[in-house]
Amino acid sequence: xxxxxxxxxxxxxxxxxxxxxxxxxxxxxxxxxxxxxxxxxxxxxxxxxxxxxxxxxxxxxxxxxxxxxxxxxxxxxxxxxxxxxxxxxxxxxxxxxxxxxxxxxxxxxxxxxxxxxxxxxxxxxxxxxxxxxxxxxxxxxxxxxxxxxxxxxxxxxxxxxxxxxxxxxxxxxxxxxxxxxxxxxxxxxxxxxxxxxxxxxxxxxxxxxxxxxxxxxxxxxxxxxxxxxxxxxxxxxxxxxxxxxxxxxxxxxxxxxxxxxxxxxxxxxxxxxxxxxxxxxxxxxxxxxxxxxxxxxxxxxxxxxxxxxxxxxxxxxxxxxxxxxxxxxxxxxxxxxxxxxxxxxxxxxxxxxxxxxxxxxxxxxxxxxxxxxxxxxxxxxxxxxxxxxxxxxxxxxxxxxxxxxxxxxxxxxxxxxxxxxxxxxxxxxxxxxxxxxxxxxxxxxxxxxxxxxxxxxxxxxxxxxxxxxxxxxxxxxxxxxxxxxxxxxxxxxxxxxxxxxxxxxxxxxxxxxxxxxxxxxxxxxxxxxxxxxxxxxxxxxxxxxxxxxxxxxxxxxxxxxxxxxxxxxxxxxxxxxxxxxxxxxxxxxxxxxxxxxxxxxxxxxxxxxxxxxxxxxxxxxxxxxxxxxxxxxxxxxxxxxxxxxxxxxxxxxxxxxxxxxxxxxxxxxxxxxxxxxxxxxxxxxxxxxxxxxxxxxxxxxxxxxxxxxxxxxxxxxxxxxxxxxxxxxxxxxxxxxxxxxxxxxxxxxxxxxxxxxxxxxxxx
Amino acid sequence: xxxxxxxxxxxxxxxxxxxxxxxxxxxxxxxxxxxxxxxxxxxxxxxxxxxxxxxxxxxxxxxxxxxxxxxxxxxxxxxxxxxxxxxxxxxxxxxxxxxxxxxxxxxxxxxxxxxxxxxxxxxxxxxxxxxxxxxxxxxxxxxxxxxxxxxxxxxxxxxxxxxxxxxxxxxxxxxxxxxxxxxxxxxxxxxxxxxxxxxxxxxxxxxxxxxxxxxxxxxxxxxxxxxxxxxxxxxxxxxxxxxxxxxxxxxxxxxxxxxxxxxxxxxxxxxxxxxxxxxxxxxxxxxxxxxxxxxxxxxxxxxxxxxxxxxxxxxxxxxxxxxxxxxxxxxxxxxxxxxxxxxxxxxxxxxxxxxxxxxxxxxxxxxxxxxxxxxxxxxxxxxxxxxxxxxxxxxxxxxxxxxxxxxxxxxxxxxxxxxxxxxxxxxxxxxxxxxxxxxxxxxxxxxxxxxxxxxxxxxxxxxxxxxxxxxxxxxxxxxxxxxxxxxxxxxxxxxxxxxxxxxxxxxxxxxxxxxxxxxxxxxxxxxxxxxxxxxxxxxxxxxxxxxxxxxxxxxxxxxxxxxxxxxxxxxxxxxxxxxxxxxxxxxxxxxxxxxxxxxxxxxxxxxxxxxxxxxxxxxxxxxxxxxxxxxxxxxxxxxxxxxxxxxxxxxxxxxxxxxxxxxxxxxxxxxxxxxxxxxxxxxxxxxxxxxxxxxxxxxxxxxxxxxxxxxxxxxxxxxxxxxxxxxxxxxxxxxxxxxxxxxxxxxxxxxxxxxxxxxxxxxx
Lengths: 764, 764
Hints:
By secondary structure, the first copy, chain A, is mainly alpha-helical. Chain A folds into two domains: about 5-80 and about 120-160 and about 175-190 and about 365-675, no CATH class; about 195-350, no CATH class. Helix content of chain A is about 65%, strand content about 5%. Chain A is globular. Residues about 715-764 of chain A have low confidence and may be disordered. Chains A and B meet through α15, α16, α30 and α32 of A and α15, α16, α30 and α32 of B.
């Protein structure tokens, strides 16, 4: 049992390690050579094109201004200084609202922690239950609900506090929902003209023997939206083409690598073997080899490109239909078009760069079957993932390896290596699985057939949360695999389950405190170091970078990673709400996590991350829903816990809590959620009217014509010069969109014509 | 334990009683004097204005044509003869589709019964488990699953059959959903022009300090639907006025009564006492008294009418907004109007006669609170309704009555009366509760704030079904009150519950067979007699009827009563599906019920019922959903039953069944449900275009102007002559709507201007 002292030591260690991370970060970040790793966002925004310090050659790589080392924690206030509106302008609404999740954590838990320490710690501490019992206990337990004698009237304090905490949480949640909803609406209202405002994605266009998809779409919308239809773009099945383009990009990297090597050492031309992994085969001149291969691929690409544009079979039964006004697009996206609700499905078109092109052509029946398959697969993944891992673990023991590869036997038998394998191997299978879990979940979502990256990420986040809830939260409280738990729960009565879990909760407080410190504190502090991008950048920089453009490409700012980050935060909400009444001593640890994470992620969002898409905070209903879930779980577990403490007279009052909380959720859902899924006609009409007054001669058709062309067609290739030209033409047409400062082509929250052309950067 | 013989006797008794009902009906219906009770629909349709037989005075009341007595079961083939399209034309789509529910029952259960008798009865019968056991058993049990030894491999038959039955049911359900959806769409497409096609109900118009509700609505829609807005009508709070009108109608009935009495016996003018219930007080001339009172009420009514139209506070924040095209109305009904999703709520306007006027002004927040209250209230009603009834029962015993009214003591102590009270009183409280239950549920739905009668009925039906499922189905299987069951279930594990219920199921087969015969067979046969309307009609006819119009009013055709009838049918689906695998001998009884009910209700729909509203089969998703629920319940119970029979190796296969069934339900929901809740734009556009081509000079504004006026304003009163005139004017404007045969003003499926004017009939 960990005492308060143990925890203090643990905290000290973790604080020190976090501090060490910060120190290393502080040193690394002011080295000019790392500038593109720690400030890529500024490069992408076009506000910085070379490290700030100029001067001697050496100072291009190492910072010699020693005064700057003294101010090594300066980045923290700097990160906090940027006001929210500027942040939204700088990094998009998604990022700004993502930061608010941490803020909500602080807003909810700081007052709760104060109240809990003022009221409940004394109430818990001034009992002697644990002292008089023969149980082993620690000081932490003395501060928790376990210290209160069975049947005591002091439980009323906990009951009242549960009400107070619930009301406070709901109050904050409601206020926050309101704020975020109005931020979203304001953001949408003040946005520049973007193609997705006028465009609707139509899926499942029914086959027609007489007309091509394009004609069919045009006729259908000319008939059914006669005054509003403007233009449309069909969707090509360019999956093969884009894999060719990918391949070409990879080859070009190799060519660059060899060319660079040759230019550094001109004495001999680089050679390579053509066989497997370059280990055997004919020796050829590397530069010639890759030049030839790229040329061949270029031909293949252009013939494939031609095939796609000529062959009607490569047109998928989906199209992007654009309207003359936002009003008409809002109308079309929110209504049903035909009798058959599985054809002519309309929905808002995602931003061009948010589209997941591969999924656009899945028919309705296939979608429902995929949904069933994924649901079943996810169920098995959650509850039975331990089975294959245990199998791998059983294989990966020493005897197994010795049998499989007898050669290694003498090495393995060494005592040191043997103990490493025995201690390390069983864990590594699990670790690898957990590292790949988000990818697996993302693949599931992709298979399910969502058509935009933002939806894919939101869906994966939901699944990841469920997985964590069952396997981390419940799994830590009731030891045993998820499947054993499931089996237990099936064989237990409905009111036994909260009891079983509730009883174990106070005992696991110290474990979760340690978890928060290691995973939360040190993890967040490690995040700021960006170790992986740092290494990769320097490798690429050394081997591949020839021009300034290459260097820009070598930067990997990454993005927030909503699908992994958000479920992580939700776990802390869950822990905080569950332990608020039971063991309030856990709360400060959570508050420190939220504060630290807020500062670190604010810094990263300002300086590093570059969001791929902008969903205008469409994820907020999920966040809200999960915090409410955590609240209900905490109430049920408290009910279970109290019922074992013979405080049964409080049960009816406790039952009211989840009922009220769920009602609160439904109220919020009705009141605020529509702001995140629909687009009110009044807003649309307002923007349309304004625009018509401001720019009566706007050529909207020109603006929309090429917005939804598959990225590989968008002049992504050298030999596609004509396309590039067309994109350039469009740019000239609309100087009004581009603000005064130079905008990088990689940045998302800009008018998406620009972001659409990121393909140009990516593919040559 | 009932043997097969007992059941045969029971069946014989119930068949005979049903036969007796039919016989009495056959005699009563051919008496001309009852013509308006048994054929009101034809009078309302205007196809009949006096009994068919003319001739001598006596034959006006009694049928003397003895040959017609011989053909006493003739109505049955006659009822079946009318083809479905004609039926839809005659009685509306709602009624026609309602009949299809019975047909589905036949379609599902007839093949299932054949298969079950061919396969499962032999499998069950050829075992000796029950014979060799010491248990008491009957022949019925020998035909059921109870007769199979524990752990037998014969359970595979039941498993396979469960799959076959599920697939068959799903197949029928899917086909039927498809048919009904296309019937609905065809019905909507071929409908005459109706005001609700062009109109949207707008609720929660936000208050504005500068503009009246009417101006606000007009400006809002002129701005946000500029090309489509046509006109609007505000909603008045006329609840007080309509109660005044009601009161006046009641007084007029009394006046008619006394006038009729005077005209029959002119020797003395009728008098009455003004005190309580006419028992004491001053004696006054009855005719003068009521004439005076009616006059006073007339003045009050007209002043109230004036007050409403002058006072802006009597305008509710709701309005009916009409558009120039169906397309625009469909758009407005299916989109969100403003940022704030709780104001300017738009939905399809119900038919004018379907509107529940009292609920139109409930604000959004109040709606969500009401929903919470009703949910909690319904929970308590379902699980704790026995508590007040037990309380009443404990009061209503002999000692209680003797204490309360000592005078009655000698009478009560009589042996016969004592036994009647003891045997009868405890049951009567429950009986009264069950009779009033649909009314209570309807009140709940009204309190919840739905704005159309059809939604109210659908909601009540859902609640009634849940109540029946818990209290009749589960309550009969596991004896004990619903609350005791709930308590049991909470204390049982999730996989114990289906076992507990599953085990008792085979034992309750005979009980349910009896229930089906009494409630189903005899109940349906009793329905055709229409005893209550028969008596009331003759009473009214004798005391109140002066003119032909009065007689028309004295008819009470009633309507199908979806909120009570449908849950009843669903109980039979549940029983059939649950027992199909367990005790197939129950199936023929259910088939007889469905066949009988189909014929009887087809007759009633053709000849009697007059639907209040036409929702175009909007209830079908509920029907489908409940049959699927029954299917899943039956699968879970079978799983529970088999797991107690040590046929556990079949469990994984059985688990797949509910998963597949639920997936089937979701598939159907996505595929067909939209047809019942949305109105596809293509359809709307088609009708608009056709109409524009056919009637280019249509005065739509005139058609819609007064469609959504509150019934009490629609010239409902003698002194409202001007209003009557305006309605008459409208009629003349559009001769094209009224088909060649004279259409009664009371009939619903007509263009609703006509049905709106039913107020004229009702209120003078």
